Amino acid sequence: MTDGQSQPTSGQTHPMDEHTIAEVERAGTQFNAVTAMTVDRANALTAEANDRRDSGQPPRRLEGIPFAVKDVIDLVGYPTTMGSAVRSDAPAAASAPVVDRLEAAGAIPVAKTNCQEYSYGILGDESAFGRVINPVDPALCTAGSSSGSAALVAAGAVPLALGTDTAGSVRVPAACQGVFGFKPTFGLVPVDGVFPLSPAFDTVGLFASDLGVLTTAFDVIAGDDSGEAPGRGEAFDLTGSGERTIDVSLLPDGDDRARDLLMSVPELTITSANGQVMGELLDDLAPIYDFIRLYEAFEVHKDLFAKHSADYQPGVAKKIESGRNLGEAEYRRQVEALAELRERSLTVFGAADFLLTPAIDGPVVRWDEIDSGTAAKFMRYSMPFNVLGWPALTIPMPGAGSGEGPQAVQLVGRPGGDRDLFAFASRLV
């Protein structure tokens, strides 16, 4: 830990108060995590919340909880910068549905957050605003693309933040900065009002310092109007006919710390039965992901890129350029292959209810240790579940972070089983 840097905190769930804005602004400056403070919006919604309370209305599910918004997601009245110099600074005319839903549940947006330019990069190393600083240790890579949202949660400035995840852009920064990060089942949460990277894989995700807040926020953005979120372990039976199986095929041999997490669920069956199947899936899905992402990202950017290519960050420009000559006919074939792969992959859940994997391949690297293989290591265990569309949760490991950087695992559930995944995760933490 470098002198002058704040230790990240966890478990913050307190509602908005007079100190929140100042703390977010302080952390935003210290960690270069904020592109705009949304004070006017926060003050207006806080006044509405106070009026509700004074009139005797019951508290909503996220009443007064401050949250941050990755700056590729529209928030009414504020520009959406995408971490880029290639942008319009006109304020958004409307908020994305995910923002509207959080606000309707009582949550209060306090900042737009710095991110990898146009979400295009897992390292978080290129933004027109400069890269975000990791609150755990400024020498460590933050990962991306949702770097600033992760940092505000890791710094204890907000208990909740929105990000986007196309190949791990929520879960990997969560792992590198020691917080919870969640990617829902593909298509379950609306992506309207969110600038796309690759629509075949894009999801809106969440960061939080507390699993309960994360669970409630997911229910809200997924459009659940049924009332309070289930309590710890509710709606998930781990006894008798409800016994569950978790596959650890992708955990390295000797990863006892990750397996120790499972000891809190004695009725759980642990298996490695899917090792061969998962290995084949990993081999098959990477080229499908690469082609579709390159093609779609170029299609998204081609008009802007034709006029402003010199104004993009160099690495992002190179990625966009890589999709220029990919043909539509081959793209259609790859989309068909993707559908077939998603169907075939469901056989994994014939032998398991959940998968446990590393969050990233190896330790969190230092900025000065990044090499040509770092991005692939960061995405090795996250990207496959964007391709497959399954829900996945980064869980920070207790006791990790002293001298060796944060450590985390990834819990993966079957498609549409997001709430089962949260209920099971509540038994582990």
UniProtKB/TrEMBL annotation:
InterPro entries: Amidase, Amidase_dom, AS_sf. Pfam families: Amidase. Residues 20-227, 301-421 form the Amidase domain. Signal peptide: none annotated. PANTHER family: AMIDASE AMID-RELATED, TRANSAMIDASE. This is Amidase. It comes from Brevibacterium spongiae.
